[in-house]
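G., before I forget:
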Amino acid sequence: MSRLRNIPKAKEAVRNSPWVLKEAVDKAAVFENDAPLHLEIGMGKGRFIMAMSQLHPETDYIGVEVYESVLYRALQRLDEDGIHGKEPDRADHSNLRFLCVNAVDLPEYLEDGSVDRIYLNFSDPWPKDRHAHRRLVSAGFLRLFSRLLKSGGIIEFKTDNTGLFDYGLTQYEEAGFELLYRTYDLHADQEEMRENVMTEYEEKFSAKGNKICKFKIRVVK
Ligand SMILES: C[S@@+](CC[C@H](N)C(=O)[O-])C[C@H]1O[C@@H](n2cnc3c(N)ncnc32)[C@H](O)[C@@H]1O
């Protein structure tokens, strides 16, 4: 993503926001329920996870974004809804929170086996070979995510970048996942599109005529 410039106030707003979790997540205490937990890792400005949290009030969501300046955009969106300043438990989206951390540090914040589903949407491609370990669909990251997932937990990955997509398809087996679904043209799959929620990048790239690829993998443990 083209990095948004360091927006003054972003750091402070993210640190002070009641929507942003600051320490190891006690899920029952945060959400006061035992609903399934879904993460989006690399949520950007949050369009996808905000829509999902409204469509599925029966599920809890945590959006993970490494950059404060980007997460700040999501908080501003809550402002537009008039709820940013409110306590999450008194507002719409009460099933949504954020973590401003690098994915690599997630085990410090989430218990092993506590997550039902992970969404990776338009993850950064890191095209150079020497940066392959930074790709969120590399075997190293997938193994880390498998630790967080419950038995049978699922990862859904969407991208328009066929190089990154094909790379991910070479990685999941080694990381202990099995393939449930794969397409190189998601928007032509009417069945799968029934539940599809567009991300910011998906909207931008599909409008340019790029095809959207998607796979779903399930952890075998
Ligand atoms: C290309 S954007 C996609 C945003 C959004 N998911 C979408 O589809 O519109 C990728 C986002 O992932 C974030 N990101 C990249 N690597 C990350 C990491 N290791 N941990 C957390 N977030 C990361 C970036 O800062 C960026 O906001």
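The chain has one domain: 10-15+33-219. The chain has a mean pLDDT of 93.

More on Monday.
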